[in-house]
């Protein structure tokens, strides 16, 4: 069902619009509170990228070229994990538990509710990036990002594309029990093909062809430019365009296939 | 499109349903149901599992689109899910979905903040009897307590109409009584309540009026007393024959049957053993109407036979 709009009155009514924003903010704060209420989940959420960074950092500690690959790679992985994977997972859970159905029965506009959920994922993605930047700087002696604005732009493009794709993908997952398998079936191959852990220049041709289509490749490219090479934003417009295309694709199916009720 | 109250629509009615239908492909879940619920009334939809109760209330709650027919709740078309209607209606779904890591107070505070004129969290906690549990996380509550919090979430907005879909299924007897008391106190506050249940005693204890649904159609409607006795005017006369065989007959003319029985006995010079005259209870009528055999009440509509026979067991 594609009805994500709230009430017919809402359009063109400034006061209503403001209160929708306020409601989204309230939902966002609730989602944050609940995220931290489950400390072990929060811990592992941030631990996995750190652990991988530590492992690869130890392996590559005498090879700054490899470190330059792994740092933006892990940052991209963190963005994908905390938006695509987390949203696909959480929405399947919320749908199956009946939370989505319950929220739909309240006056909370659907848009405000979903904005709260998305905002929660975006915050986690941003925290991941901050952690990766700090650890890279202080643990492995990688320099500060070269272009903060570019970093912000690619973070925004990445969370938009992977957030939309995560919501869309939750529509495909039949139930929560199978959700980890469904999510990992996409997440893990994409990590390897997109060059999170190594430079893909030596990969077989067909894998490189696939990689040029995948959004994570272009997110990592952009993050690499912002964090390592310092290539200006004007040289990364191709990466941005492909991320935007994925965002539109994901957004279309995210809205179109949205289901509030548990599948019977 | 919001349906407006025309002149035939009395302002005291909270819900109007006319010839409501819902099909899923070939299968008709609701087959032309009509009823109205007055403001302040407790209306019970009674029927076995799979009869169409939940489909009907979910259409009224705005969760499902109807196939045809009309439905208004507080003068609004629930199919368009207007914001104002959602502000004035409370819903208890069949399964409770709570934020497991929030406390009872936090949960009620958050949901209350979504409504323009909420009941206070303290009042709501008192109403659902969860005093002392304010700071417990919802995951630590017992099943019955979670269900009560569920009810609290439907009441926090101070609704004019509350839908309760099988609110006490799975409760122990004590928790059921407590939930009934809550529903009664809501009624005293003037709240209109639509209750689905497959428990007869629940309908009898709570509902001002009851509609019995079977296979997507209403097969009887009235006060529990009317459905059980007076309205149907069917009376069961039972006795024991001279050879000891128990006999029983249902009749709309008990006087004639009794006269015949007693005069025969007088003529033969013996007593009629174990003579009893009973009016059917709501339970008798319910089991009769919802059994797999064709209903025997004359005003019951003819059922499309067979297709769902196995599913419509006695509830």
Biggest interface pair, counts:
A-B, 26 and 27 residues
Walk across the major sheet of chain B and give the strand order: 5-6-7-3-8-9
Radius of gyration of chain B: 23 Å
CATH class of the largest domain in chain B: Alpha Beta
> Structural class, from secondary structure content of chain B?
alpha/beta
Beta content of chain A:
under 5%
Plain-language structure description:
The complex is a heterodimer of chains A (264) and B (315). Chain A has 264 residues and is mostly helical. Chain A has helices spanning 14-37, 39-59, 64-97, 99-104, 110-140, 148-170, 179-193, 205-213, 215-229, 237-256. Chain A is built from 10 helices and no strands. In chain A, helix 2 runs parallel beside helix 5 (110-140). Chain A is globular, with a radius of gyration of 19 Å. Chain B has 315 residues and is an alpha/beta fold. Chain B is elongated, with a radius of gyration of 23 Å. Chain B has 2 domains: 13-227, 3-Layer(aba) Sandwich (Rossmann fold); 235-278. Chain B has helices at residues 53-60, 83-88, 104-112, 121-128, 143-155, 173-188, 200-206, 224-228, 254-268, 282-290; strands at residues 13-24, 27-38, 42-46, 68-73, 89-92, 161-165, 192-197, 209-214, 217-222, 235-240, 246-251, 273-278. Chain B has a 6-stranded mixed β-sheet with strand order 5-6-7-3-8-9, sandwiched between helices. Chain B has 10 helices and 12 strands.
């Amino acid at each position: 069902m594609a009805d994500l709009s709230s009430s017919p009155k809402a359009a063109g009514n400034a006061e209503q619009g403001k209160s929708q924003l306020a409601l989204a903010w309230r939902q966002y704060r609730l989602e944050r509170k609940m995220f931290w209420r489950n400390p072990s989940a929060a811990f592992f959420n941030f631990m996995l990228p750190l652990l991988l960074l530590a492992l690869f950092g130890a392996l590559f500690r005498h090879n700054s070229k490899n470190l330059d690959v792994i740092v933006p790679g892990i940052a991209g992985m963190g963005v994908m994990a905390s938006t695509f994977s987390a949203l696909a997972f959480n929405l399947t859970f919320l749908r199956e538990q009946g939370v989505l159905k319950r929220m739909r029965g309240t006056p909370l506009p659907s848009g405000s509710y979903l904005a709260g959920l998305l905002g929660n994922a975006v915050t986690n993605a941003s925290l991941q990036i901050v952690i990766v930047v700090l650890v890279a700087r202080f643990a492995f002696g990688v320099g500060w990002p070269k272009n903060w604005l570019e970093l912000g732009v690619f973070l925004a493009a990445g969370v938009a594309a992977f957030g939309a794709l995560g919501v869309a993908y939750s529509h495909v997952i039949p139930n929560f029990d199978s959700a980890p398998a469904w999510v990992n079936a996409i997440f893990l191959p994409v990590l390897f093909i997109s060059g999170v852990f190594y430079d893909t220049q030596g990969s077989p041709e067909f894998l490189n062809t696939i990689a040029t289509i995948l959004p994570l490749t272009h997110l990592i490219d952009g993050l690499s430019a912002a964090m390592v090479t310092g290539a200006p934003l004007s040289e990364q417009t191709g990466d941005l365009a492909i991320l935007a295309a994925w965002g539109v694709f994901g957004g279309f199916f995210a809205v179109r296939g949205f289901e509030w009720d548990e599948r019977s | 499109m919001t349906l407006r109250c025309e002149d035939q629509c009395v302002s005291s009615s909270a819900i109007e349903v006319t010839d409501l239908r819902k099909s899923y492909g070939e299968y008709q879940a609701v087959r032309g149901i009509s009823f109205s619920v007055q403001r302040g009334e407790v209306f019970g939809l009674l029927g076995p599992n799979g009869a169409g109760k939940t489909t009907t209330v979910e259409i009224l709650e705005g969760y499902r689109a109807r196939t045809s027919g009309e439905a208004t709740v507080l003068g609004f078309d629930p199919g368009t899910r207007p914001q104002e209607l959602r502000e004035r209606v409370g819903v208890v779904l069949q399964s409770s979905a709570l934020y497991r890591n929030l406390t009872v107070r936090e949960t009620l505070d958050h949901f209350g903040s979504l409504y323009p004129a909420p009941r206070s969290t303290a009042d709501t906690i008192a109403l659902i009897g969860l005093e002392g549990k304010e700071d417990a996380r919802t995951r630590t509550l017992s099943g019955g307590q979670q269900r009560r919090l569920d009810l609290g979430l439907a009441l926090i907005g101070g609704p004019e109409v509350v839908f309760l879909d099988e609110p006490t299924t799975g409760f122990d007897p004590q928790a059921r009584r407590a939930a009934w008391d809550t529903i009664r106190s809501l009624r005293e506050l003037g709240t209109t309540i639509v209750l689905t249940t497959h428990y007869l005693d629940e309908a009898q204890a709570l509902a001002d009026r009851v509609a019995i649904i079977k296979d997507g159609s209403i097969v009887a409607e009235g006060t529990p007393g009317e459905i059980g006795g007076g309205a149907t005017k069917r009376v069961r006369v039972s006795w024991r024959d001279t050879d000891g065989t128990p006999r029983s007959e249902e009749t709309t003319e008990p006087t004639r049957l009794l006269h015949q029985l007693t005069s025969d006995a007088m003529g033969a010079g013996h007593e009629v053993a174990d003579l009893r005259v009973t009016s059917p209870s709501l339970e008798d009528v319910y089991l009769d109407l919802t059994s797999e055999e064709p209903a025997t009440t004359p005003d019951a509509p003819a059922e499309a036979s067979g297709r769902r026979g196995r599913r419509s067991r006695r509830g």
